[in-house]
Amino acid sequence: MDGDLEEIARADLIEREPCPRCGASPGSVCRANSGVVAVDHHTGRYAKIPALKAGTSPDKSAS
C-alpha cells in the first residue's frame, strides 16, 4: 500500500512540470505523437525534479 502512495506522490511531482518533449502543460499527462496518453511520463519531466534524479523518494527528500 505504501508503494502505491509513493507512486502517486511521484506522479504528482512530475506532473507539476511542463513536458519539454510533448508539450503537456503542468497538471496534464504526457501524450504520444498519436495523441494517446503515454504509458510513462517523458524523461525530460524527471530531470526537473532533483529528488527523482537522485533516486530518493519525495517523502525522504523533504526531511
Short overview:
Helix content is 41%, strand content 0%. The protein is built from four helices and no strands. The protein is globular and about 35 Å long.
List the helices and strands and how they pair.
Elements: H1 2-15, H2 43-46, H3 50-53, H4 58-61
Provide keyphrases for this structure.
single chain, 63 residues, mainly alpha, 4 helices
Structure description:
The chain is globular, with a radius of gyration of 12 Å. It is an all-alpha fold. The mean pLDDT is 81. It has four helices and no strands.
Topology as a string of helices (H) and strands (E): HHHH
Rg computed from alpha carbons, rounded to a whole number of angstroms: 12 Å
Principal-axis shape equals globular
Note the beta-strand portion: under 5%
Mean pLDDT: 81
Class based on secondary structure composition and strand pairing: mainly alpha
Q: How many strand units?
A: 0
Number of helices: 4
Low-confidence stretches: none
Largest sheet: none
Amount of helix: 40-55%
Report the span from N to C terminus.
21 Å
